[in-house]
Specification:
The complex is a heterodimer. By secondary structure, chain A is of the alpha/beta class. Helix content of chain A is 39%, strand content 20%. In chain A, helix 1 runs parallel beside helix 7, helix 3 packs parallel to helix 4 and helix 10 packs across helix 11. Chain B folds into three domains: 75 residues, OB fold (Dihydrolipoamide Acetyltransferase, E2P), CATH 2.40.50.100; 84 residues, no CATH class; 209 residues, Chloramphenicol acetyltransferase-like domain (Chloramphenicol Acetyltransferase). The chains are: A alpha/beta, B alpha+beta.
């Protein structure tokens, strides 16, 4: 039985979608000849040819604009950012054109913007960021962040088939660390719908809402806490926009205490938004404060010890959960 | 960053109340400088700062009661920027200084106990008066679990299926307190004090832990009575110390323990820990409970030193002024069931020790001395020991040694 990594799942999803639909094309720096900085697109140029696998100059705004134009003309481009940090260079194209096109002209922009996000691999402040909130805050863009191999495949396929722009955040630390057997992968639905969260662990004391690589931190903390009699329920959001409010609220109404965990920095993070939704819509079901466990408001440090302290760890979740459980 | 925690104020104390902060957030504090004051049912005391730095965060406000080892403050380099939780102060109607004795009950205010939106909703739905629900959360907060348990105890007599909260109900089902509220007839329900709870827990723990056996000896303490009678006035006048019988018994017991190390020991798993310190606990009755201050290194003290320590600890125990270390570390305990006329009791061992000596009242009795009937001051001594470690023969040899030392008393006490 072969094992499929998170990275391989992304590769497979693109490969299969490009085989299935000739309108799907791929653009980005080094995606063709070099096969991608992380080798996600190795072999694509040979298979699909240079009309569909396009090496671009180092100009994020330029090739994102090209992709939007191609989408207006009937193609379904996948844009790869070598590191998602540099999506900042394409901010104007994404937020002012891609995001508003359907609203202004009724013209959907079916592009997928994908790239490696997140820290924990000693890559420093320009290659470790989590830029989701710039785009979560912009109406008109869907944002997904898979944590598992099956979701990496299923959400990417859903994104490619979507009629609107989707930001697909792949966590670089998960690329080769998260694996699934090919048999297990085949048993899963091919498409994972955008906008559906999933409960990864059931528990009755505290709901931890999280996404992407932090799922594994939450699950590790849940194992530790279970030995103390504190049972965490762990929700993997999978999609940040649209947000599966019902899944969160259903758990909060049952469990009554909630913690939001993310690797992104604290102020203006997803946790604050979810906390506000819970306070608005489930205030009467709260038996304790809404707790956030996040990175602090600083750039991602390069020094190993500092990066370790920056990214939330299981022990941070455990400490916060003990306090919340005792509240 | 250094966490400041609620210290354990005695071996069976579970919680403490912050009564006063000596420093404000942002103040500089030096290591060992008094940082805050706490009160438990056993001890009121000042707690020194564990480190030097800036008091960057106060997490437990004045008047709040929290479990031991709860972080009450943080000392760091600067004031915490992102405080996740604002310190909760006692109701503002009470001036922060001087420290209000006694501290206000943390859990309740004019509006009822601290709870949560969920708990208030449940209270509305089930028509519960939250003042009747005892809170187990932080600072006595009434939690969801507390309400679920309360509902269980309310439902129990009707044996109605707990349809609304099946899972929580199952968890709460074996809890004993449910019974109390269902006793027939007229009942007044009062909450247990923290001291009462900890005594209750400790006594049951001890009964469950040790194989208790009690042996009773009779000793002729006429020489001690005589020594005390002849010297107690001088003692009080010259040393300012009220001379009781306790230091005599501590002296005899400590000397005997040196010959019988198994009585001055503890059991830990499958290991025996022979304690090399002779720290003798002396039970002191308080209103609504008791406390056992410890005379540390009793074997190294002069008789006067012993007498002074006993009198000082007893006084401060009654004034709730003991320091935490003064109720910890005992290796053997003395208790005194005598004052109200009891001949002897069968005391419960003070864990993790293995023996406790109960000293009955000293009474004059006719006894046979050299085939003649004489009037002597007699006392019954009841030793409860842990049969896991100490066998009857050894316990009796120890007691014979104590008896011999009491009867043959010849130490100059002044």
């Amino acid at each position: 039985m072969t094992e499929v990594t998170y990275l391989e799942a992304i590769r497979q999803a693109m490969w299969e979608e490009m085989e299935r639909d000739p309108r799907v094309i791929l653009l980005g720096e080094d995606v063709g000849l070099y096969g991608g900085a992380f080798k996600v697109t190795a072999g694509f140029l040979e298979k699909f040819g240079k009309d569909r696998v396009i090496d671009t100059p180092i100009s994020e705004e330029g090739y994102t604009g090209v992709a939007i134009g191609a989408a207006f003309n009937g193609l379904r481009p996948i844009v790869e950012f070598q590191f998602i940090d540099f999506i900042a260079n394409a901010f104007n194209m994404i937020t002012n054109f891609a995001a508003k096109s359907r609203y202004r002209w009724g013209a959907g922009v079916p592009i997928v913007m994908r790239g490696p996000s997140g820290g924990g691999v000693r890559a420093g402040p320009f290659h470790s960021q989590n830029p989701e909130m710039h785009f979560v805050h912009t109406p008109g863009i869907k944002v997904v962040a898979p944590a598992t191999v099956a979701d990496a495949r299923g959400l990417l396929k859903a994104a490619i088939r979507d009629e609107d722009p989707v930001l697909y955040l792949e966590h670089k630390k998960l690329y080769r660390h998260v694996k699934a057997s090919s048999a297990e992968l085949e048993s899963r639905e091919e498409i994972v719908p955008i906008g559906k969260a999933i409960v990864r662990r059931r528990g009755e004391n505290i709901v931890v809402v999280t996404y992407s690589a932090m799922l594994y931190v939450a699950l590790e903390a849940a194992e530790i806490l279970a030995k103390e009699g504190i049972e965490l329920e762990v929700i993997d959001l999978r999609s940040l926009v649209p947000l599966d409010k019902e899944c969160i609220l259903e758990s909060v109404r049952r469990v009554n205490k909630v913690m939001i965990l993310h690797e992104d920095t604290r102020t203006g993070g997803m946790a604050g938004e979810i906390a506000a939704i819970v306070a608005d819509e489930a205030f009467d079901d709260l038996d304790g404060p809404i707790v956030r466990v996040t990175a602090p408001d600083t750039p991602v440090p390069y020094a190993a010890a500092l990066e370790d302290a920056f990214i939330p760890r299981a022990e941070d979740v455990v400490r916060a959960a003990r306090r919340l459980a005792a509240y | 960053m250094i966490d400041v925690i609620m210290p354990q104020m005695g071996e069976s104390i579970a919680e403490g109340t912050v009564t006063k902060w000596h420093k404000k957030v942002g103040d500089r504090v030096e290591r060992d400088e008094p940082l805050f004051e706490i009160s438990t049912d056993k001890v009121d005391t000042e707690i020194p700062s564990p480190a030097s730095g800036i008091l960057s965060e106060i997490r437990v406000g004045e008047g709040q009661t929290v479990p031991i080892n709860t972080v009450v403050a943080v000392i760091g380099e600067k004031v915490a920027e992102a405080r996740t939780e604002a310190p909760r102060q006692a109701p503002p109607s009470r001036p922060p200084a001087p420290p209000p004795p006694p501290p206000p009950p943390a859990a309740t205010s004019e509006r009822g106990p601290r709870s949560s939106p969920l708990v208030r909703k449940m209270a509305r739905e089930h028509e519960i008066d939250l003042l009747r629900v005892s809170g187990s959360g932080q600072g006595g907060r009434v939690t969801k679990q507390d309400v679920v348990k309360h509902l269980e105890s309310r439902r129990a007599p009707a044996s109605a299926p707990a349809a609304q909260m099946p899972r929580a109900a199952a968890a709460a089902a074996p809890a004993a307190p449910a019974v109390a509220a269902t006793l027939p007839g007229r009942v007044e329900i009062a909450p247990m004090s923290a001291m009462r709870k900890s005594i209750a827990e400790h006594m049951i723990l001890s009964r469950r832990t040790s194989a208790h056996v009690t042996t009773v000896f009779e000793a002729d303490v006429s020489r001690i009575v005589q020594a005390r009678e002849s010297l107690k006035r001088t003692f009080e006048k010259e040393e300012g110390v009220k001379l009781t019988y306790t230091p005599f018994f501590i002296r005899a017991v400590t000397s005997a323990l040196k010959s019988f190390p198994a009585l001055n020991a503890s059991i830990e798993g499958d290991k025996i820990l022979y304690r090399k310190d002779y720290n003798i606990g002396v039970a002191v009755a308080l209103e609504g409970g008791l406390i056992v201050p410890v005379v540390h290194h009793a074997d190294e003290k002069s008789f006067l030193g012993l007498a002074r320590a006993v009198s000082d600890l007893g006084e401060r125990a009654r004034g709730k002024k003991l320091k935490p270390e003064e109720v910890q570390g005992g290796t053997f305990t003395l208790t005194n069931p005598g004052p109200y006329g009891s001949l002897f009791g069968t005391p419960i061992i003070n864990q993790p020790q293995v023996a406790i000596l109960g000293v009955g009242g000293i009474h004059k009795r006719p006894v046979v001395v050299n085939d003649a009937i004489a009037v002597r001051s007699m006392v019954y001594l009841a030793l409860s020991f842990d049969h896991r470690l100490v066998d009857g023969a050894l316990a009796d040899q120890f007691m014979a040694d104590v008896k011999r030392r009491l009867e043959g008393w010849d130490e100059k006490i002044l």
